[in-house]
Design brief:
CATH superfamily: Metal-dependent hydrolases
CATH architecture: Alpha-Beta Barrel
Number of helices: 13
Radius of gyration: 18 Å
CATH class: Alpha Beta
Number of strands: 9
Distance between the termini: 39 Å
Amino acid sequence: MSAVPLASDTARAIHAEHPAIDLHADTLMWSRWIGYDLHKAHEPPLPFAALGGHVDLPRMREGGMGAQFFGLVSLPLADRPRGMARTVHEQIDALERQMAHRPGALRLVRKAAEIEACRAEGAMGALLGIEGAHALEGSLDNVTTFARRGVRYIGLLHFSSNEAGYPAYGRGRRDGDGLTGWGFELVERCESEGVLVDLAHINKRGFLDACSIAKKPPIVSHTGVLGAFEHWRNIDDEQLRAVADRGGVVGVIFCPQFVGGDGLEPVVQHLKHIVDVVGEDAPALGSDWDGFIVPTRPLKDPRGLPLLTDALLEAGFSRAAVGKILRGNVMRVLDEA
């Protein structure tokens, strides 16, 4: 593998104490499509780490990670798509094959205590999140089915409208309409099953609707914030407060297009804005690795995470605050949900 810049001993020590948890990578999509091997060290196949090839266990270990949320992606190409639930099951099947290939190296986990057990035993934790409620195919019972397979969050929307509501951008966009009646039922069903509600990609009205009835912490798995950079993909301060008021977390994406430039500084500015608006308990990491983005070059894969830690320290973040961003905030939400 190519050399990466060296992080400080301080950053490495912080990662040893707080092994990072990232809220969103689409790696299992590639495992399902082309048999991408999570146990093998890869280099992205295209310039500047484009498209995929970002995440694997060797680079996660080198970057001081403890667990990764894997997004389960299905892309509806029709108004009434079929086979979306099957697509999600096939990605979970792909993860199970990866775990069986080298038992003990990668474990499916659901709870904070299980992530801690992985840390103690030298394993990497894998968590699951569905990207878009279209994958439920209109059935709330599928929430239960997927929860039993280990899914810990469900994103209400992706890039097209579905039974729950409307996207911030994409097919079927309706900025004036919020959650549907079924969408409200979905939030309640997720909470009853211990599944986190993910508000990435949903329009603002639906976002606030979901927060208005949330009894457990919601999350935004991967996003930027408008207070740091103006872009349709990013959420505003009202949305930040709605999530934070309910104890939730907001994962900052690593895509230069959404954070406003390449390098570590834009990512730091988004994290700083979240802290300035709602405090240290809300920010988290939401890379979107392997998700058809070109990540910022210092964070082209998990090896760059200690460099982000150095950048946060240089920007004035305390070690305690960095520990919360890397791990602590997500661990708290997992416990509370």
